[in-house]
Write a structure and sequence with these properties.
heterodimer, A: mainly alpha, MetI-like fold, B: mainly alpha, 0% strand
Chain lengths: 297, 343
């Protein structure tokens, strides 16, 4: 808001904020797992940002040790069939995995909330078109649709991102539509309209920010799912190509060795993947407790 | 109108509602076939083709026509069951899919049944005993279950039960080479073996099925258990359950007739999402266990860029998904106590 002449902004800085922090503290102390999840989240972000500078070996360098060695002091997670250090590869892979899922979720959040906001605010044909589009996407088993899109559009990492974004779009569009349409005629919205704001400004300046808290929960829960999807796609050989370190493709490469007992090739990248998804799901649950205590299950 | 007639009308209406969905699926699948990287005509003409033969292929395939005309041709081919030829095997895609579908269905439906049988009682138990160990186990399973990548669980189970314990047979297909498959009636090896009365074959088929089935069931267990628990908690806290309790009905009757039957409705509605997950996860599990279903067919086709096969797979999975959802809606109409009751 740039116009200072309108009514004083109703943002009360004092009491609500402290009570918010108290609420946060209460939620975290009630459920220490949420605190743990935030710690893990920090760890993953750190690995994504600084991983390549911290790892002991070059993740692409073959023959840094003997091939197919079980975990040892020199190679914490063992070595793979080409003698690469699995620990370095798992850590470095964090960046690519998170990058794919963050960009996919960001795209579907932006597009989905714009579509859903228009549908919820204006109704009519915007609503019908959005609804039809969302229903059509949801008519497919989502992972299968992603496979089809990547197969048709070309086997590249960008297309993995687009495919994951498309299959996540319905969740954001539906949520934005629902959250906007319940506030469409709320008192503060009518006040904003009466003070001469344009429709678009009312929608994106006044209504949309109010939908953000439930959207954040959705984003967090969705991130885990996006990571799983992207890793699943690279597991079946789409998108990321070897020798790039990525969790899904590392599990796929290790799969050939599991029946001969070389478990570390699969277990460590798989555990990293699982832990990442688990972290985002826990954060999502924690955020939901914070935002909407009623829906707690 | 009699209740049965009302229900039949509802079911018929629901079937009609599926038509636009199917149309949407056909449009998307058609667009996917036309969105091939580069020029489809050049692709189908092969790498050695010159300008003239590419033009000829374009005309033969009808790719020089406007898109709506091409769409009609696509629909006509589909109506005749023509999905093109699978380059990798040289067979028509339709027959490849039809041959492999029973294997996928056996795995998917079996996993759904198994997870339903475990998850629903688990959710009910957790809801009736909040904050006890059952509840904690349920909550843990639910959060861990949705975080598990299916392909990773499959490999981990394979390592433990095949390599370490040697309980499971080698993860190669539906039946050990030592056994002859029973005469095909339903295409489901287990059911066919029962029909033929070949118990040894049944045991072998079940042994092969066990690990993929558990992998897939672990994945679908979580959403079903979560939904059951939440729905049960909600109905148990509702007024009509309190009234039933106050009226002195036995706790068994309150739980089963009043609470459970009503809690089942939201559970059944979320099954649509579970189907979407299970059909996707199915592809990964089939790849891990070399299960000869349509998922592993599609993965093999992807590797050699066999587009007709992949598109046929996407289309058939989508239609299967619609069919499963329809089935669920019909069941929903049947069990909904509000439909065709006194109203």
């Amino acid at each position: 808001m740039t116009s200072a002449s309108t009514a004083p902004s109703p943002k009360l800085k004092g009491p609500p904020r402290t009570s918010y922090w108290q609420h946060l503290k209460h939620v975290v102390s009630e459920n220490p797992v949420t605190g743990l999840a935030f710690g893990l989240f920090g760890l993953f972000i750190g690995m994504a940002l600084f991983g390549p500078y911290l790892v002991p070996y070059d993740p692409l360098n073959t023959g840094v040790g003997p091939a197919l060695q079980p975990p040892s002091a020199a190679h914490w997670f063992g070595t793979d069939q080409l003698g690469r250090d699995v620990f370095s590869r798992v850590v470095v892979a964090t960046r690519l995995d998170l990058l794919i899922s963050v960009s996919a979720v960001a795209i579907s959040f932006v597009l989905g909330s714009i579509m859903g906001s228009f549908a919820g605010y204006f109704g009519g044909w915007t609503d019908r078109i959005t609804g039809r589009l969302v229903d059509t996407i949801m008519a497919f088993p989502l992972f299968v649709l992603a496979m089809g899109i990547v197969a048709a559009a070309g086997n590249t990492v960008e297309n993995i991102v687009y495919a994951t974004a498309i299959i996540n779009l319905p969740f954001y569009a539906r949520m934005a539509r629902a959250e906007v349409s319940i506030r469409r005629n709320a008192g503060f919205v009518q006040a904003a309209r009466l003070s001469g704001n344009s429709e678009l400004r009312v929608l994106f300046g006044h209504i949309f920010p109010n939908t953000l808290p439930p959207m954040m929960v959705q984003i967090s829960l969705n991130m885990g799912w996006a990571i799983l999807n992207a890793a699943g796609l690279s597991f079946i050989g789409l998108g990321v190509q070897p020798p790039a370190p990525e969790w899904g493709i590392m599990v796929a490469e290790g799969a050939n060795f599991i029946i001969s007992g070389e478990w570390w090739l699969v277990i460590f990248p798989g555990m990293a993947l699982m832990l990442a998804v688990f972290t985002f799901n826990l954060i999502g649950d924690g955020l939901r407790d914070l935002v909407d205590p009623q829906r707690r299950t | 109108m009699s209740p049965i007639w009302l229900k039949a009308r509802r079911v018929a209406l629901r079937l009609l509602e599926a038509l636009p969905t199917v149309f949407g699926i056909l449009v998307v699948c058609f667009l996917l076939t036309r969105a091939l990287p580069g020029d489809p005509a050049a692709y189908f003409a092969g790498p050695m083709a010159d300008e003239a033969s590419i033009e000829e292929v374009r005309r033969n395939l009808g790719l020089d026509q406007p898109l709506p005309v091409q769409f009609l041709t696509y629909l006509k081919d589909l109506a005749q069951g023509d999905l093109g030829m699978a380059v990798s095997t040289g067979q028509p895609v339709v027959s490849e899919l039809a041959n492999r579908l029973p294997a996928s269905l056996e795995l998917t439906l079996g996993a759904l049944l198994l997870s339903f049988v475990i998850a629903v009682p688990l959710g009910v138990l957790a809801a009736t005993r909040p904050n006890t160990w059952v509840d904690h186990i349920c909550r843990f399973l639910v959060t861990a279950g949705v975080s598990l990548p299916t392909f990773f669980t499959g490999l981990a189970l394979m390592y433990v039960f095949y390599y370490l314990l040697d309980w499971a047979p080698p993860p190669m297909g539906r039946l050990d080479m030592m056994y002859l498959p029973p005469e095909s009636v339903t295409g489901f090896l287990t059911i066919d073996a029962i029909i033929a009365g070949e118990w040894e074959v049944l045991r072998a088929a079940l042994a092969q099925l066990a690990l993929p089935l558990i992998t897939l069931a672990l994945f679908t267990l979580a959403p079903i258990a979560r939904m059951t628990r939440a729905a049960m908690l909600q109905t148990l806290g509702s007024d009509f359950v309190r009234t039933a309790r106050a009226a002195g009905l036995s706790s068994r009757r309150v739980l089963v007739t009043y609470a459970f039957r009503n809690a089942l409705l939201p559970v059944v509605t979320t099954l649509g999402m579970v189907f979407s997950f299970v059909l996707g996860a199915n592809v990964l599990v089939e790849k891990v266990f070399a299960w000869p279903g349509i998922g592993s067919f599609a993965v093999e086709a992807l590797v050699v860029s066999d587009y007709a096969a992949v598109q046929g797979f996407v289309l058939s999975m989508a239609l299967l998904f619609v069919a499963l959802n329809l089935l669920i809606d019909v069941i929903y109409t049947m069990i909904d106590p509000r439909v065709g009751g006194e109203g």
